[in-house]
């Protein structure tokens, strides 16, 4: 499976706060930037944060919750599908700076087709992120 990088632009309440979260804490390399936006390399994909000053210093972007497996899954959300070892390492890393997961890291569909690790958390502006992993991404990502 050959994938091409996606480009995703999101709003944040403060550029320096986003630089700290995505750049320093998450460890995503920074690309081009101005006073109002920053490009980050998110596992080979282009994540761009744009400052929305209307959110204010304590503001959050809006999200809805959709019931999935007894959890309130935030919509919208975004993230990357990783190999299991990368997913476990990321889960341990973010536990060091995430105050509370939206959904703690766990395994869904254990022992079934599509078994996956998943976790949800939010950035300081309220953007919801999901990172997941499959044992065999190519055969399981879209398996029924």
From TrEMBL:
Residues 4-134 form the VOC domain. It comes from the Bacteria. Coiled coil: none annotated. InterPro entries: Glyas_Bleomycin-R_OHBP_Dase, Glyas_Fos-R_dOase_dom, VOC_core. Gene3D superfamilies: 2,3-Dihydroxybiphenyl 1,2-Dioxygenase, domain 1. Pfam families: Glyoxalase. This is VOC domain-containing protein. It comes from Cocleimonas flava.
């Amino acid at each position: 499976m050959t994938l091409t990088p996606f480009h995703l632009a999101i709003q944040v309440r403060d550029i320096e706060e986003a630089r700290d979260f995505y750049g320093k804490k998450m460890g995503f390399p920074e690309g081009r930037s101005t006073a109002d936006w920053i490009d980050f390399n998110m596992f080979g994909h282009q994540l761009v944060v744009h400052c929305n000053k209307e959110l204010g210093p304590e503001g959050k972007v809006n999200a809805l919750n959709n019931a999935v497996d007894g959890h309130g899954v935030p919509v919208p959300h975004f993230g990357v599908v990783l190999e299991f070892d990368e997913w476990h390492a990321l889960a341990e890393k973010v536990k060091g700076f995430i105050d509370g997961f939206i959904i703690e890291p766990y395994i869904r569909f254990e022992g079934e087709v599509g078994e996956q690790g998943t976790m949800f958390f939010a950035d300081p502006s309220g953007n919801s992120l999901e990172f997941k992993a499959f044992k065999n991404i190519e055969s399981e990502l879209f398996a029924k």
